Amino acid sequence: MSSERSLPPEILARRRWMGLAARSRPDRLRELLPELPAHDLLRAPEIGAVMVEGRAGGTGTPFNLGEMTVTRCSVRLGSGEVGHAHVQGRDRDHARRAAVLDALMQTDAAQGLEGGVLAPLAKEEAARRTVRAARAAATRVEFFTLVRGEDQ
Amino acid sequence: MYVAVKGGERAIDNAHAWLSQARRGDPSVPELSVAQIREQMTLAVNRVMAEGSLYDPDLAALAIKQARGDLIEAIFLIRAYRTTLPRLGSSVPVDTGEMAVTRRISATFKDLPGGQILGPTFDYTHRLLDFTLAANGSEVADVAASLAEPAEGVPHVMEFLNKDALIQAELQADGSVPDLTREPMELPASRPLRLQALARADEGFLLSLAYSTQRGYGRTHAFVGELRIGAVAVEMEIPELGFPVEIGEVELTECETVNQFTGSRTEPPQFTRGYGLVFGQSERKAISMSLVDRALRWRELGEDFTGAPAQDEEFVLMHADNIQATGFLEHIKLPHYVDFQAELELIRKLRRETEQGDLAAEEQP
Would strands B87-90 and A39-55 be described as parallel, antiparallel, or unpaired? Predict the structure, then answer.
């Protein structure tokens, strides 16, 4: 997205994993990351609303479109890393798991989690998006213009 | 005078018990699950999310079940629930140019980059009842998927007109975004405030207003420049981190109208814009919203106020919310015994006075 351009690589990497965790289906994330290490809750999972903004004309002045449900959570691992999560919906377990994943990605476990959790999530999301795009493409109208003889 | 009435509690309990039975219907028919409503009554779910002003398909489906399919009652339930949620923040404005489109059409440009994509539409169906759906286990058609390269980007059509300066530019005035859920609406309203009110407005009310502009009450000569439906990422700046992350994805319908405009005292001849953006798949509402948005912009474009309802900001904004409307409308069925007693006294008094007046008149020679 446009906001990505000016950000340093370590922030882009964190944005990527936090986004993948937030967009993942809660049961799928639980399947891929069933065991959570010991952690303290800095902020227990809390259900709330986030106001979604749009722009007039798609590109103009921002306006409030309406809210969406979001659950947030912050945790600290025994080793000190702090993880945050804001995830769509009202699944407290999802928010907690995403926050723990965010913290774990700052530890030596990152490489293993990249292969075991993030890569499958990214792959499955890409597959869902490809299916959606291919279905849309199949309903694309191909216009062609008939040229009348006398116009040639 | 205050009158306390006793003895209603048991009647109310019994009425509610009956309501829950009526909601369930014939017990020999399997009960609907919330997931079934969410997946198979999607457009009803979308409407409840849009007008409830809360994007959560599971909650909207639950509300529809609880409300026995009465969508305004369901919207009421969602609005009430919404007030119990703490506000965690605001998103970065969504970028609809980056939408993963499932539908995208233009009535003004035939050969637009990215193409005309029909998506899962009712258009071109014959509107004949399909009795195969009444038979259990009806077959679902196979969905074609194109192996052709899906379009890279699907740019907004309006950008092409913008390049030639033929259409009014959208100005970006960043600043605090007005929120009618936080401060009472003040008139005249800014365009962002109007758009928020329209986005949660009653679909039927907006449809009728938009239709009235097409029939001549505040005509705006609208074409659908572009209508698109699809998924958009929602990003939010996390205070602890100081940078935005994606927190989820919402389905939106966006409509941009191109309106003929022959110029006014202040503006040159050019195309002007109306804008509609709605939660979920709801193109009737999005088109209606963009027509009404355009009609309400008469002042900034230096047009005349013709007295048309769709141009009248106070009329539109104060009557567009179906929960406010139904709340006030339906309250008149609740006990007004004391009010009515006073009215009754008044009528009797007036009657007595007229009768005495008549008597006095007869006695005059």
Answer: parallel
